[in-house]
Write a structure and sequence with these properties.
about 650 residues, mainly beta, Immunoglobulin-like, 6-stranded mixed beta sheet, 4 helices, 40 strands, about 10% helix, extended, disordered N terminus
Length: about 650
Amino acid sequence: MAKKPDKKTPESEGEEESLEKIRNLQRELYGREESETIQSRAEEIQHLGLRHTAVPTDNEPHKPVKFKDISGEVSRRRRRIIIWSITGVVLAALFASTIALTLWYRVRQNVTPDQMAIAVEVDDEFTSGEEITYTINFGNESFVDWQEVEVMFEAPLGFEPSDTPPELIETGSQYIFPVGDLPSMASDSFSLTGRLVAEENASVVARAEIRLTPANFPSGRFDKSVLATTTVVAQPVDVSISMNQQAGRGERVLATITVRNKSATPLTGGFLGLEPTPGLELATGDPQFTAGFDPIEGEWDLPLIESLASETYTVVLFIEGEPGEQRTLTVKVGIRQDEARFVQRTGSAVVTVSASELSVIQTFEDAPSPLTVRTKQRINGVVKYRNSGTVGLKDVIITAVLEGDAVDEASLKLKSGAYNPTTKTITWTSASVPDLALLNPQDEGEILYNFLIQDPEAFAKDESAINNNVIVTAAIDSPDVRVPVGQDRQPVTDRYVMSVASDILLGVDAFYDDGRLGITSEGPIPPAAGETTEYTVRIRLGSTLNDIGEARVVAVLREGVTYTDETVATTGEISFNDRTKEVIWTIPLVKAGIGRVAPFEDFHFQVSITPGAHQSGSTISFLSRLSATGTDLFTDIELDALVTKSPTTQTASPGQGRVQ
């Protein structure tokens, strides 16, 4: 009987079908000739955790294959990703919160520059010389209380306070406001009013600074500063100048200057300065030149000028140059404040050197003006004249006016012309110079004369003898010279200036001192061989006419004469060079007239001698050389003096100077 096949249940059929599908899938996945798509799919299955087994053959018994649930694995992976993401977000949030808390803590505990509030309120523009108010605002914008707070305000140059809070401490241009404690979020301010002077169109800068110590940081010190700028847009004064627009060479020119106070307050501390260009010379000694001018500073001190009032000044000048050249006089009016100077207004006027048919030129000692001369010096002068026109000029007159007290009138030597001692004028006409009767076109000539500068003892015994000038003004004129319509006749002039230099007064003597100066001489008189005797040498120094600066006196001791370092001097400093045996006396300033109208400056120093037997019967000289140098502060030349005769033991003790 044939065996019937086993009846398959639905479960077994389903299992067989699943196994078949798996076999087919494995064959496809692990076949050697798979496509790239199949290989990629196999790699994905392997990545999902499917365990692979070799494909069973028909002779091998079937073994069940275990595999993972792919969809479950994906679900579990997604859950892990979500968990890690949530964890990262939480950690990031915690980190951000930590930073925020740290920053918040620092803000609450620290002080930054942004939290140090300080500002200066002031007008952007102002008028120089008027009142201005600075308001300084400050505050604590931090969360920390401040201690030892102070606010400093540094005023600009030219500020002069008029209303100062009593609690302000003034130190120069700085004003300190001691605040003390300043709580968190508190603020305060103070104001300072005063007069501010500055130059036209200047930008004036002020500075404020706050300094503090945080309450939670007692050892710390913080500061912050700010600047405030305001601009000068108007000045309180006006200045105007009027002067002839043309003048001949050497002609005397007048200029009128007017200073007006246009502000609502009186003008104080003002000055008016003059700045002539080369070729314009100020004639400060002219009677019409307004008094009070300082030739060193080149300015006047202005008096108090009331509001809307004015002051007028007259300036006398002499012009030099070739026809067509221009000369400018610049004036400056300003205000002084302490040691600072602020120019408020400037003005200028221009004069042109005009051509003339006649010309006159002077020279002295073959040198152009200005010239430095010495006392008792003979001065040779030449006056050259010329007709540069195209027509002859008749009845020409030439004059020379000698100004100053330095000319020895008795020494004046003239080959022609006449001198009038009342007007101090030399006049030459055709009576003594025939060529002046008719000066034809292009004709020229010259006149010679000379004189002596006074001996110093002939000068006045007061301050009028200081800083002497000899000013010679030559003029030439003819009635035939054409005069422009509407103008007065003005002779052609030439001005020459000679400055008289000072002389150094230097003298020396010696004596056996009795101690009245604090230096006592000891030793035998007359001096004895082998024994030491002390003497005092006295040097005297002075200046005849002008101040002398940086004076230096050098006395060289002879061999055998010893310097004892005992000295007495009325002024200056003393030093001794033992290698060169030079006793040096330096004086910063020797005033004019010292030794002539006032006592000498004296320097005493002690020396000693110990003569030898070979010097018996002889006298001993103390110095081998004595000289002095210095700078004449008026003429700015170097001066010197030399004494060739030295004091001796005989002149120190007459009749008792020979060595025994």
